[in-house]
Amino acid sequence: MSSSIVLNSQNVVNPGAGNNTLVYQFPGSVSFPNHEIAIQSIAMYYSWQNVNGTTLNNNKFNYAWMGPTGVTTVYNVVIPDGMYQLADINSYLQYVFITHGQYLIDAAGNNVYYAEMVLNPNLYAVQINTFAVPTALPTGYTVPVARPAAGVAGWPGFPPVTFNPIMYILQNFNLLIGFAANFTTSENIGVGTNLSYVSSTSPEIQPNSSIYFSMSNITNPYSNPSTIIFSLSPNVGFGEQISEYPPQFAWNLLTPGTYSQIRLQILGIDKTPLQIMDGNMTVVLQIRDTKSGVSTIMNALQGGK
User: Fold this and answer.
1) Cβ neighbourhood burial of 163 (10 Å; 0-12, 13-18, 19+)
2) Which of 78, 100, 104, 273 is surrounded by the most beta carbons within 10 Å?
3) What's the start-to-end Cα distance of the chain, in Å?
4) Burial of 296 by CB count in 10 Å (0-12 exposed, 13-18 middle, 19+ buried)?
5) Rg of the Cα trace of the chain?
6) Which structural domain, as residue segments, surrounds residue 255?
């Protein structure tokens, strides 16, 4: 026989501070002389960030832009901590271009940017495209006007020669888009052509594409650390609910002893506590006696009598 234990948001330790540790407190001390435990189901929201300056240190890259005097200036891009698809990161780059006035407006009123990061699905890669910045205003185009109240600069002036913005892909951010650390694109001075660069490895837009559930009361000799009881890979989009129902329970032996609580922790790919934004979750555990026909979980809750 087996019985269930339900952990939910009420079992989260220090709600809001990572939401990665859940503790189930038994009514009293419970003896588990010969029992196994498994995860029956998990319901939680896909709410762990893939860009974070503190825990992942992957929120920065730089680019360089040539001014009207021919001097090239490097600009730092710091992405706010959050959950991003590649399109969101590219949109943030465009936002930075807008704040510096580093774009033009075509005849249809569309903003024209001179660098981008886009998906190349055929190559399963990220592609960085840089475009030649002209030395004079193209026919039908206009320049952006400064909006100081909105923190937006006007057009900085045309360069004396054509150039392509230089993209500097810094360490850790490079893993998100699949480029080598400190990869740098060409300024392409005076050539006037567009350039494209394809990532050299598969992009990992979510560093924690798999997460682990660790339980303090087990010893799994086949995992490292030995407390790992389950792994989960989200199959939904950011912010959507994950519903996991293992088709077969993976039973783990509870270390024989008497316990007052069960502690479950959610870990990232590096086996450190995962920072989860939404603590609204439900984890159902199953506990069973490994000795056929002898004591059940109910006996365990009565002290093993």
Assistant:
1) buried
2) 104
3) 16
4) middle
5) 27
6) 2-48+208-301
Centroid of chain to Cα 136: 41
Distances (CA, A) of 244 to 41, 44, 146: 6, 9, 51
Query: What domain count does the chain have?
Result: 2
Of the candidates 99, 156, 110, which has an alpha carbon nearest to the alpha carbon of residue 133? 156
Residues 6+ apart with CB under 8 A from 120: 126, 127, 198
pLDDT in tens, 152-187: 999 999 999 999 999 999 999 999 999 999 999 999
Burial 26-57 (b: 16+ CB within 10 A, else e): eeeebbbbebbbbbbebebbbbbbbbbeebbe
Residue with tokens 């979510």: 206
241: pLDDT strictly greater than 90: yes
Q: Does residue 301 contact residue 259 with C-beta atoms inside 8 Å?
A: no
Q: Are the C-beta atoms of 272 and 17 separated by less than 8 Å? A: no
Convert the pLDDT of each residue in 108-131 to its tens digit: 999 999 999 999 999 999 999 999
8-state DSSP, 119: E
User: Which are the contacts of 190, defined by CB distance < 8 A and separation ≥ 6?
Assistant: 161, 162, 163
pLDDT for 298 equals 44
C-beta neighbour count of 78 within 10 angstroms: 12
Tell whether 26 is covered by a domain.
yes
Would you say residue 54 lies in a domain? no
281 in the same domain as 223: yes
Residue 53 lies in a domain: no
Question: How many CB atoms are closer than 10 A to CB 297?
Answer: 20
Tokens 């590219």 correspond to: 90
Which pLDDT does position 291 carry in this prediction? 65
Residue 7: give its domain's CATH number: 2.60.120
pTM (predicted TM-score):
0.87
